[in-house]
Structure formats: structure tokens, C-alpha cells
Amino acid sequence: MHFAGIDIGSRTIELVVLDEAGNIVSSLQADTGFDPMEEARNLIDGTRYDRIMATGYGRNLFEISFDASTVTEIKAHARGSRSYFPDAQTVLDIGGQDSKAIALFENGKVKKFEMNDRCAAGTGKFLEIMARTLGFDLEDFGKEALSVEKDLNISSMCTVFAESEVTSLIAKGKSRQEIARGLHASVIRRAAAMINRVSSEGDIVFTGGVAKNPCMCTLLERKLGRRILTPDDPQSVGALGAALLAQEE
Amino acid sequence: MTENYRAMWKDLGLDLEAHDGLLAVLGEAYQDIYLSQKNRPAGMGYFDFVMSEVHGLRIKELLDEKKAGRKIIGSYCVFVPEEIALAANATLVGLCSGADFAMEEVERILPRNTCALIKSSFGFKLGKVCPYLESADMIVGENTCDGKKKAYESLSDLVKNLYVMDLPQVKSDHGKALLKAEYNRFRKAVEGLTGIPVSDKSLKQAIRTVNAKRTAIHRLSALRKADPAPISGLDALLANQVFFYDNPERFTESVHKICDELENRIAEKNGVFPENTPRILVSGCPQAVPNWKLPFIVESSGAVIVGEESCVGERGTRNLTDETGETVEQMMDAIADRYFQVDCAIFTPNPDRLKHIQEMVAAYNADGVIHYGLQFCQPYLMESMPVEKAMEDANIPCLRIETDYSMEDVGQLKTRIEAFIEQLR
What we know:
Chain A has 249 residues and is an alpha/beta fold. Helix content of chain A is 43%, strand content 20%. With 425 residues, chain B is an alpha/beta fold.
């Protein structure tokens, strides 16, 4: 038997397939694009599985189009994180358009969670737009921000307002790296506040695309004084969790 | 219903085009949210009919009452005693405040960061789409939260017959004395409006009529303790919403009728959801017609709502008015005693509400609590934090949500509510 998990996020879709023993036999990714179901179909075409579970914002659409069960991103990330770090009790997931802090019981069940509502402030999309405004590739954005020690304070968390703040800092001739670091710090403040609302101690598993950003990991660790654990492929943790839950169903 | 009532709506001064638009949206929402539910109790047919005629037949009835010499009083709050209105030959109806309407016009009068309920009440006036408001001979505002209190100052420019009732904010002897004085002032105002003085006999009868309504709702609520749930939270909420609009005697009779049916369902274990479906208590701000956003999300995500700790729900209907008084004065005291127990978040401190939430969790065997807060509703949002803390201390999962009447956050809410339900399984 093979078990698949698919995470249809706002920016990317991940597919993870497990064999009976729980080993990852394939892990695929695609951009969500304009037609998420078509992209999802392309990903699962040619993939062999017996059961599939969908998560992410596109899960309900997927459930209708394909024979699948669904689970929320919250439970999927919790489950996926525990497969990397079996004792984890706090998970932070920052994806393309939302962010969540999740506290787990010792047995891995979700105890409490916080999630941003409505707008994409403090998520991957925010960082992506800011990187573009500053002329950095998204892949280098964190590294560039980490290359300086000073951060310029960015007061607005709203993508639109922050962008004009950044534009005016550039016009004043401020260092792009310091602005970048300031932007990271502002996302961290928000994430830290969210984590503090659900849990006050212990290691934190950091998942989602934003966990690939080294500046985020460093600043978060410093801000909270807690160890940040990042899985090898933080972006596929949701899909992995869904696959594991499909297996356990 | 449209064709028969156009002349009536026109006479009331409604904007027919806008009103058609409202009814079309309402009809569609009702179809999608209510009529699509499976295995509904047959007794809900009555409430479906009431809703389909909510701006039609019911308005015609009110206008007929007016022709026969009765007066219509519109209200926005459970602190306005129906007993007093009925005893002075007036009918009390709840006024529309459950949907966004004419928001651009509203935001010319009210700040953007005003709660959806207050904005909605203005929207229905400015958009000329609430036949209840236009039929009313008196509109009662009440000094509950700061938002409403200040909004009534602006509303008085829009409606000529606004009466504002003051309310206490502290449960002290002074507070109770204020409430009694205000209820007596209200009684005199209603007597002045109708020209009919409240008598021992009429007040006693009015108390009985309203108590009968409450008793029927209490019976319905008690039946929701059963697992599997014999009625959906959506349908029970609807009955609680219709409480504010319908003819009291007919409402009482219809609720008892559905209760008879639910008792049979319980005996047959015929639920609207399977046994062991996660059970949720909703606590917080009122959900006025047609604000069905939260229960629709909850009940289409695999849980059932078993109680509403809300003005449109148990906060509004809890406790009967003592019927044993013989004089108007004794009965007026009894009315003040009954309403003074309402645990609205405008009171400080407000420990009774927390106690009631805990009692309701136990009574309805709820697995978790969703605290429903309207954005910018300071009193309930403030209380949501201690409520969450108290629930956590008692190991009762609690989800705080803050939303409005728009649909833009439905996707986010659905994810959060689904995740909460996963937590309860």
C-alpha cells in the first residue's frame, strides 16, 4: 500500500508518497499557479498511491475533484513535524499566505493554535514582495539580511504600507541589507507573539516555505531564546503529515 | 411573496429595487444554508414559512394590528421588556441588524471601526429596506455599549420616533434602582403612545404570554442535550431569532409542536448528525437574522452546535418573570428583577456570564466552546480573553473568533474551525 498527502497552498503544491513502512518514496512540488486543480492533477498523474489525503487551502476543492479525504493544515503540520521530531510540542508554520503557531500535547494531539486572520501580513507573501521591492532574489533575501548586524525599524506590518516605508528608506539612501533585516525582524515580532500565545517553553519546529530563510531562523531563535528545529524539507511537512494521516486513517 | 406586498412596501417608503435585491440574496442564502440541510424536523416547516414571509405576511399582520389600534414598537436589545409593550396594547418586534447593507452610506455617518451589528441597523434604515423599522410607531434604543449609545445620537437624526432607554452598568442596588426607574419611564412612554394604561390584569397577562414563549424555548433548548442531536444548531438558532419577530402565542405553539416531534426523534435516536458528533457551545455576541455565517461553517465542518450563550439564545431567554405579583408595582419590580439578571458584557464586573458558560458546557455536554466576537465589539472581545482562560483551566477547548458580516474571511474561518473540530475528536 502507498499513502499520499497533497498540500495545496496559496503559492505551491506539495505531494508526498509513503510506502507501507512510512518511507518517503516520492516528494514533488509545483507552483499553484492559476489553476490549482490542474496543477494538482499534473502532480498526481503517474503517481501510484492507494489512499490520498488533502490539506491546504485547496483541500475542499481537491476533495470534490478527486477521491480524497481532507485534514486542516494545522493537524497536518503537527503530524508532519512529529515525524521529524517525535517530542516536538510547538510548531510554527509560515506559508505563502498564512501563519500558524500550534501547541501540541505530549501525545502529539493539537492542544491550541493561533492563526493570522484575513490578511497576509507577516507571511511568505510579505517577504516575497519586500524582496522584490529591494531588488533581491527571494533565495538570497535572508542571507543578505543576515550579512548586517543592524536592522532598520519597519513599523508597518501591512504589505502595502510597508512597501511605501521601504521605498522611502531607499530614497533616503539607507542600506538595502539593513532594511531587509528590519523587515525580517518585523515578521519575527509577529511570529514570536503568536508563539507566545500558545506556548512558553521548549523547542520549536519551524515549517513552511519561510523556514528555508536563514535570517528568520536565526532571529527567531534569538528573539525567543528557544531552540528552532527545521526539518530537511520544511515546505513539504504539511503534505508529509497528510500522507501519514492517510496511512493512519 | 413579492407580488402581493409591493404596494404595502411602497406605502412604507421602502426602496423597492434595493429591497428586491435584499430578498433575492436572503432567499438564496436561506436555500443554501437552511433548506439544503438533511433530515430536518418537519416542524421547521413553520419557521421556513415565517422566514419566507418575514417581510411579507408578518408585516401585513403588524399593519392590520395598527389599523385595529395597536402600536408597534421596534427594539434592538433584549433589555427592552416585551411584557410592558404587550400590557399597554403594543407589539414588540426586533429590528433588522444582521446583514451588511448600504455600507457606503453608513460609513458617512459612523466610523468604519464600528461593529457590524450597529452598522447594519443603520444600513437597513439608510437603504430603506427594513419594513419593521418603517412600521414601528416607536423605536427603542438602549444605552448598552458605547458604540450603540453614541450611535443612537446619530440615529435620532434619521428616525423621528426614537426613544432611548438608559441602562445600568453595575449590578448594585443603585443599578437596579436605575433599571426600575427606566422601566417605569418606558411604561409611561408606551402608555402615552397607545393611550392605554397598563393595568394589573393586562400586565399579568403580558407576563404570562412572554413567559410562555420563554418556557417553550427552554423546552427546545433542553432537548438539544440529547446525543445524537435531534435538531441542528442552525435550526435552533432560527427559532431563537424568530422569537423576536413572531406573534407570541403562535410562536409558543409552534415551538412546542417541534418539541413534541423532537421528543419522538430522541426516543428513536433519530439525529440530524450521527451520534458522537463533536458538540459545540457558541458564546458571545448576538447573531441576528440573517447572520448564519458561524453556525453554517461549524455545521458544514462536521460538528453540531448545541447551545447559544448569546442574546439571541440563552442570555436573552434565561429566567422567567415572576408571575405572582398582584399590583402593577409588584409586577414592574418582578420585571426589573428578571431583566437585571441578564449577564450582558456591558456590566462590570460580569462574573455571572462565566458561570453560565460553564453551566451550559456541562448541561449540553459540549466538547468545546467557540467564542463568537464581532469585530470592534469591545465588551465581548474584552471578555473573550478571560473566557478562554477559564475554559483552558477547566480543560475545555476554546476557540476565539472575531469576525463581521462579510464573507471575505470565510476561508480562514473554515480552516480554523475545522482544525478546532479536529482537536475535539
